[in-house]
Design brief:
Order of helices and strands of chain B: EEEEEEEEEEE
Distance between the termini of chain A: 41 Å
Distance between the termini of chain B: 37 Å
Strand content of chain B: over 45%
Helix content of chain A: under 10%
Number of helices of chain B: 0
Helix content of chain B: under 10%
Largest sheet of chain A: 6 strands, mixed
Strand content of chain A: over 45%
Radius of gyration of chain A: 14 Å
Largest interface: A-B, 28 and 30 residues
Oligomer: heterodimer
Chain lengths: 115, 116
């Protein structure tokens, strides 16, 4: 069965510090991989996605993520966090082929940024 | 920037009442979705809709739920007889192409449903 695990429910970092949010997935084959962010009162916004090719993908707002097939992981990173990055982050997967938008989400990681 | 809009932002209802949640997807999008998130739990897929019919639905999407695109712009989710366990944040999303065709989902801000 498909599943996505985000082992960290809540992470606190200082502004300017580096960030890594973990995501592991269980899927029959290599799925499409996504990171979404949700700021308070906002909808889910796509940060980045991996479909194929280079395993290090760049996204918006200075985020990047690396797909590691051997570890079934797709961790999100940012070298220097800004206070505006405080939000909830969701990792998600979708099957390749004909699946029309069925995403499987992790529970989310709440990021708090100290000034 | 085009966006998906949802109304209402918050609805409180009594158990057993019918609820309709409304969504206006991005205008040139062809695929529409509803997801929900029960407090403290994962965001879960409910249903996808394409070409005026349901493409896929999850086990959550039982006979109490229905979706409709009544007028070419709105996309609605109806819950016929609400239960306490239907209390959740409901997200509408749309995409130009299906995810299988590398379509990106654009989500609305959500409608919070509270069933008393």
């Amino acid at each position: 069965a498909q599943s996505v695990t985000q082992p960290d429910i809540h992470i606190t970092v200082s502004e300017g510090a580096s960030l890594e949010l973990r995501c592991n997935y269980s899927y029959g084959a290599t799925p499409y991989l996504f990171w979404y962010v949700q700021s308070p009162g906002q909808g889910l916004q796509l940060l980045l996605k991996y479909f194929s090719g280079d395993t290090l993908v760049q996204g918006i707002k200075g985020f990047e993520a690396e797909f590691k097939r051997s570890q079934s992981s797709f961790n999100l990173r940012k070298p220097s966090v800004h206070w505006s990055d405080a939000a909830e982050y969701f990792c998600a997967v979708a099957g390749r082929g004909s699946t029309l938008g069925r995403l499987y989400f992790g529970r989310g990681t709440q990021l708090t940024v100290w000034p | 920037e085009p966006e998906v809009t949802q109304t209402p932002s918050h609805q409180v209802t009594q158990m057993g009442q019918e609820v309709i949640l409304r969504c206006v997807p991005i205008s040139n999008h062809l695929y529409f979705y509803w997801y929900r998130q029960i407090l403290g739990q994962k965001v879960e897929f409910l249903v996808s809709f394409y070409n005026n019919e349901i493409s896929e639905k999850s086990e959550i999407f039982d006979d109490q739920f229905s979706v409709e695109r009544p007028d070419g712009s709105n996309f609605t989710l109806k819950i016929r007889s609400t239960k306490l366990e239907d209390s959740a944040m409901y997200f509408c999303a749309s995409s130009e192409r299906g995810t299988g065709g590398t379509g990106e989902l654009f989500f609305g801000e959500g409608s919070r449903l509270t069933v008393l």
